[in-house]
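FORM 7B: Structural annotation worksheet

SECTION A. Query
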Amino acid sequence: MNLSRKIERPRPINEIVLERLRDDIVNGVLQLGEKISEQQLADAYEVTKAPIRAAYGRLQSEGLVEIRPQSGTYVFRPTHEALRSLCELRIALELEAARLSIQRAPLRLSQLVTENYAQMLVALSRDDSNTYHQLDTALHLIFFELADSPYLYETYRARVSSAFAALRNRFSQARPHNEFSIRQHQEIRDRVVAADLPGLQSILREHVEHTETYYEAFLATG
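SECTION B. Predicted structure
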């Protein structure tokens, strides 16, 4: 008798709603700065307001929504100061993840970054911005996945990754920007393959600082 099969348990509704609302923010279904209603979301997702309220609390901690007393809940729209702080946090976390991953898993890091970069080239050649941006997000996560530092990984996922994905999906559609981006990612790949940590950290810092300047221009016009 084979009793090895596990019983599949249904996912908690709070988890499903959280993932759906996060995706709707990241993918641009909900606009930056848009006021969002518990009742409207509950109707759209066909759930009660309780899991919506729970998702608000989690997404506020991730920086994706802002809860304003006596006003309501809004999709995040970073100010100049907030964007600068977010980029400073990303630089601090990503440079440390680069150091740990290149120290602890250099061959695997080289393999995964090289594979990801090749896929980014294909997506760019097809003018497939959505896939390109997903691969961009995934490439930077590789450093954290291989750093073997759970707190570092969770901090990046919770405070940085989704916010940057949301901004990237809105502001990084122009072909010239993506062509500049792929050149920077080529240099990131080259520094990883060469196991050149100072060079890798330098290009990662430059990449984030350029992104900050680029996104700031869009936010200033809105």
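SECTION C. Observations
The longest strand covers residues 65-68. Residues 13-75 form a domain with the Arc Repressor Mutant, subunit A fold (CATH 1.10.10.10).

SECTION D. Sign-off
Analyst initials: ____
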